[in-house]
Amino acid sequence: MTQRVNYLQQSPELFKKFLAFSTALEQCAIEKPIRDLVEIRASQINGCGFCLDMHIKQAKIHGERELRLHHVAIWRESTLFIPRERAALAWTEALTTLPGQGVPDEVYERVRTQLSEKEISDLSFVVMSINAWNRVNVGFKTVPGSSDAAYGLDKAGLN
Length: 159
Hints:
Blueprint lengths: L6 H4 L1 H13 L7 H15 L2 H13 L4 H6 L11 H15 L7 H10 L2 H23 L8 H4 L8
Helix pairs in contact: 3-4, 3-6, 3-8, 6-7, 6-8
């Protein structure tokens, strides 16, 4: 396999600015457990092994139950998610896949019943961020687990 560009080395200033944007989301109106679920679901949809690996480990470190992590891919059928989480996951899927006709009204209405306008706006930025990270890591084939030590993900106990 041909070695791909190391985007962190080639664009360090852009990387730092985007990392700062992503880090700023820690202070948004969406609670960390939902951000974890959103990052996992978008990464599943986008097929980003690096981000999926990272966010599952982070969620585990944050105390997420293992069965719920397995159920993120089947959240519609699972009984393990509350309506607020379901609304966030539906919004995440809609913004990640961007249906040809745009985000369906029923998805928007669902999220409106569970989140405030500020929370919907902040959630949209969380989805934007993870989708961008997915795209760069898929494009450059970043190896899952390759940054575990740097990000403290070895603490998840998922080797």
